[in-house]
Amino acid sequence: MKTLNILAFAAAVILFTIGCAKKDTPQGDESGSESWKIGMSQCNLGEPWRVQMNADIKAAADEAAKIEVVFKDAQNDTLKQQAQMEEFISAGVDLIIISPKEAAPLTPVVSQACNQGIPVIVLDRRILGDNYTCFIGADNRKIGKAAGEWIVNKLDGQGNIVELKGLMTSTPGQDRHAGFREGINGSEINVIFEADMKWLEPNARKEMESALARFEDIDLVYAHNDPGAHGAYLAAKAAGRANEIMFVGIDGLPQEGQAYVKQGILSASFEYPTGGEEAIKTALKILNGKKVDKEITLDSRFFTPANIDKGGRELEAN
Q1: Helix boundaries (H) for 116-170
Q2: Of 91, 151, 193, 224, which residue is most buried, by most CB within 10 angstroms?
């Protein structure tokens, strides 16, 4: 009987050990036989740039194989994005990628995931604090400043500008605004009208209609994204004033901002890379236990009619 008890105890120890090892051992790697499950929480798919971000993530995941990405679209609803994050946590996904709609309301649920041992990559828009695994994005303040300096040079240091801002409760909107104001500081550029178009082209068109109704002399529109600049252009075109105004945007997608520059609709588009491919590469490193940088800053370019056929021009370091 004593021998049987010893064998039973040993078997229990072995089973317990196997159970812990399965939980703690990676389920797959870059060349492994099992797959990782990654949750991707996108704040909305109403912007072409965000559709491209998801496409870049999917392409990189397909190429890596062994990765299943579950995409969720919060449809510009912060509460919905919080709920989707909680679903990922409850489902026990291996890693979460989030591009948050807003910083403050989504910070707690990102912390919740991290505190439960789920790595979180924050993509494009920041949250508050540093309780996340890695942030990936370009330098929005640098891009905004570069746009401001380019505009000052283009207008010989003076002129009337309309600024159509992105969602100002999001960090890209705040940084693109702050950088732009820094870029035009000291010039005689006057921002005569500004409005929050929340990244959406229909909102930008509506706000531009208001600006056109109030001001007869508008030299340039600076929009925080290319859809905003295009919406402003459509409003000016409908009013018969498109030829007297220049339009500048940010994003620089080949099929959008770059195409608008080639068509003569935009005078300049500043690239903001989606970071989708970088997110998957970074996710693989994290899941395989490798150390990654807390902050990964992506390079950016800008496109004008003069350089578009040469692939644009890289933004210089600050």
Answers
A1: 140-154
A2: 224
pLDDT, residue 6, reads 43
Give the pLDDT confidence score for residue 136 in this predicted structure: 97
- State the pLDDT at residue 317: 64
Instruction: Give pLDDT < 70 ranges for the chain.
Output: 1-34, 317-318
HSE (side-chain half, CA atoms, 13 Å) at 256? 25
Residues 36-138+274-299, CATH architecture: 3-Layer(aba) Sandwich (3.40)
Type of residue found at 230: H
Beta strands 295-298; 134-138: pairing state: parallel
Torsion sign, CA atoms 188, 194, 200, 204 = negative
Per-residue pLDDT, 277 = 96
Decide which of 3.20.20.70, 3.40.50.2300, 1.10.10.10, 3.40.50.2020 is the CATH code for 140-272: 3.40.50.2300
> How many contiguous H segments (helices) and E segments (strands) does the chain have?
10, 13
Q: How far is CA 271 from the centre of its chain?
A: 12
Q: Which of 44, 103, 48 is nearest to 269 (CA)?
A: 48
- Residue 191 in tokens: 């921002």
Tokens of 292: 């990654």
